[in-house]
Design a protein that fits this description.
Number of helices: 7
Distance between the termini: 74 Å
Number of strands: 3
CATH superfamily of one domain: Winged helix-like DNA-binding domain superfamily/Winged helix DNA-binding domain
Largest sheet: 3 strands, antiparallel
Helix content: over 70%
Strand order of the largest sheet: 1-3-2
Shape: globular
CATH architecture of one domain: Orthogonal Bundle
CATH class of one domain: Mainly Alpha
CATH topology of one domain: Arc Repressor Mutant, subunit A
Strand content: 5-15%
Length: about 190
């Protein structure tokens, strides 16, 4: 009699997983039903929906970032990433690319420097300007944080149906171009 019980307990995780998948699908269907019907020819409505969706995703990602980066604020994580990607960069350029007031950027750079993640050196061409660069520790820590954040997002993406994951992957080039375009616009 023990064998049937073992079979049931071994299949319980599979059944629970199927139940969870069904609940997820039901929740997505309910969310879709709650969304207002939109006209395909209303670009403002499409833009509003895209903005709302992106904001929701960014907010969730920021909470993941803060959890993964224990001890870092979202602004510090973003600034560290900008320094790692851009290499030695003037403080003023760093503030501009991050959309920060120069004083705030300077404070964030000082915090990162205290942790040994970035260093500040005078610019050779202009002694008044400061170049900020990531230290070896800064590169390493950012790579760790990036991997943790990517793993968290990958786990969430795995829960999406394959066709939705493919649609997101297909949209990546357009989203990257949109991000560059928005960064270049003067409001």
């Amino acid at each position: 009699m023990a064998a049937p019980t073992d079979r049931v307990s071994a299949s319980a995780p599979v059944a629970a997983s199927r139940d969870a998948d069904a609940r997820d699908a039901d929740a997505r269907d309910a969310q879709a039903a709650d969304r207002p019907a939109t006209r395909a020819d209303d670009p403002l409505e499409d833009a509003a929906r895209l903005r709302t969706a992106l904001i929701r995703v960014v907010r969730r990602l920021q909470s993941i970032d803060v959890a993964a980066g224990a001890g870092f604020t979202p602004a510090e994580l973003s600034l560290l990433g900008a320094v790692v990607r851009r290499g030695p960069v003037r403080s003023s350029e760093l503030a501009a690319c991050e959309g920060l007031h120069p004083t705030m950027a300077s404070r964030l750079v000082a915090r990162l420097a205290e942790r040994g993640l970035v260093c500040r050196d005078p610019a050779a061409s202009d002694g008044r300007a400061t170049l900020v660069s990531a230290t070896a520790n800064g590169h390493e820590r950012f790579a760790q944080l990036r991997a943790q954040r990517a793993a968290s997002l990958a786990a969430a993406l795995e829960r999406l149906p394959l066709d939705e994951r493919v649609a997101l992957e297909s949209a990546l080039p357009a989203l990257e171009v949109l991000g560059d375009l928005l960064a270049s616009l003067q409001w």
